[in-house]
C-alpha cells in the first residue's frame, strides 16, 4: 500500500507552530536575562525542552533565532553556548538606544492610555517603597515601561530595532546595579509623568537622561573593579 510523502505541516498548523516557536523563544530569553543560563553555559537541548515544557521543534526554532541575534554561539565542536556580551557591545547598544528611544518616547507621549500609565506608576511607587535592590520586579518593570513606549510610538520598525538592542543590554553581566534602584524609579516616574501629560519634548529628554544615567552607572561600576 502506497503512502503519501510527508510534506510538512498543513497550512492551518503553521500559525500554531510559529506561536510555539515564539513562546519557546521568550522562555529561553527569560532564562538568559534572569541568570538561569549564564555566559559560557552549554545549551543542552533535551534537558531544556523538558525544563520549559516544549517539544524540540519549537525549541530548536527559538535557539536558531537566538543564535542569529548573537545571544548564543557555536563552539568549535558545533555545540551551542550562551555567549558572553562584552562591555564594548553594551556601550554601543546604549549609544543606539540613546539615539532611538527618546524619539520613540516623544512619539508615544499622549498616546498611552491613562490606565496603563497609572498601573505602571503604582508599580514603580511600590518598588520604591520596598527598597529591595535584588527584587526581580525591578527588571520586569523596566522592560514593561520601555515596552509600552515602543508599543505606542506608532512605528513598528523603530519599536523592533529598540527591542532587539534592549535585549543586548539586558544580557549584560553588570545589569544588577544595586545603587540604581531608587534613581531608576524616580527616572521612570518622570518618564511616566511626561507621557501622561503628552509632553513630547519632556518625554524625550527624560528618556535620554535615563539612558545616559545607565551608561554612567556601568562605567562607574567598571571603574571600581
List keywords for this structure.
225 residues, mainly alpha, Arc Repressor Mutant, subunit A, Four Helix Bundle (Hemerythrin (Met), subunit A), two-stranded antiparallel sheet, 2 strands, globular, disordered N terminus, transcription regulation, Tscrpt_reg_HTH_GntR, transcription
Structure overview:
The protein is mainly alpha-helical and 225 residues long. The protein has two domains: 67 residues, Arc Repressor Mutant, subunit A, CATH 1.10.10.10; 138 residues, Up-down Bundle (Four Helix Bundle (Hemerythrin (Met), subunit A)), CATH 1.20.120. 68% of the residues lie in helices and 3% in strands. The protein contains nine helices and two strands. Strands 1-2 form a two-stranded antiparallel sheet. Helix 4 packs antiparallel against helix 7 and helix 6 packs antiparallel against helix 7. The longest helix has 25 residues. It is globular, with a radius of gyration of 20 Å. The N terminus is likely disordered.
Please tell me what the overall shape is: globular
How widely separated are the two ends? 71 Å
Quaternary structure: single chain
Named at the architecture level, the CATH assignment of the largest domain is Up-down Bundle
CATH topology of the largest domain: Four Helix Bundle (Hemerythrin (Met), subunit A)
Contiguous low-pLDDT stretches (5 residues minimum) are 1-14
Number of domains: 2
Query: What order do the strands of the largest sheet run in, or round the barrel if closed?
Result: 1-2
Protein name: GntR family transcriptional regulator
Keywords: DNA-binding, Plasmid, Transcription, Transcription regulation
Organism: Cupriavidus pauculus
GO molecular function: DNA binding; DNA-binding transcription factor activity
Amino acid at each position: 500500500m502506497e503512502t503519501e510523502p510527508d510534506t510538512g505541516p498543513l497550512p492551518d498548523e503553521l500559525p500554531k507552530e510559529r506561536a510555539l516557536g515564539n513562546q519557546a523563544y521568550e522562555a529561553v530569553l527569560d532564562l538568559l536575562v534572569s541568570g538561569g543560563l549564564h555566559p559560557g553555559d552549554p545549551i543542552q537541548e533535551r534537558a531544556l525542552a523538558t525544563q520549559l515544557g516544549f517539544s524540540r521543534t519549537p525549541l530548536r526554532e527559538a535557539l536558531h533565532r537566538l543564535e542569529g541575534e548573537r545571544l548564543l554561539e557555536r563552539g568549535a565542536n558545533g555545540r551551542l553556548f550562551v555567549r558572553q556580551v562584552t562591555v564594548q557591545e553594551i556601550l554601543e547598544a546604549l549609544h543606539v538606544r540613546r539615539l532611538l528611544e527618546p524619539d520613540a518616547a516623544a512619539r508615544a507621549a499622549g498616546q498611552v492610555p491613562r490606565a496603563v500609565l497609572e498601573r505602571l506608576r503604582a508599580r514603580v511607587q511600590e518598588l520604591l517603597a520596598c527598597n529591595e535592590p535584588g527584587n526581580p520586579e525591578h527588571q520586569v518593570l523596566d522592560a514593561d515601561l520601555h515596552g509600552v513606549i515602543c508599543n505606542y510610538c506608532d512605528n513598528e520598525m523603530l519599536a523592533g530595532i529598540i527591542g532587539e538592542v534592549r535585549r543586548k543590554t539586558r544580557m549584560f553581566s553588570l545589569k544588577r546595579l544595586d545603587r540604581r534602584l531608587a534613581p531608576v524609579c524616580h527616572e521612570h516616574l518622570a518618564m511616566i509623568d511626561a507621557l501622561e501629560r503628552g509632553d513630547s519634548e519632556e518625554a524625550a529628554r527624560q528618556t535620554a537622561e535615563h539612558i545616559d544615567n545607565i551608561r554612567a552607572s556601568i562605567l562607574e561600576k567598571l571603574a571600581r573593579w
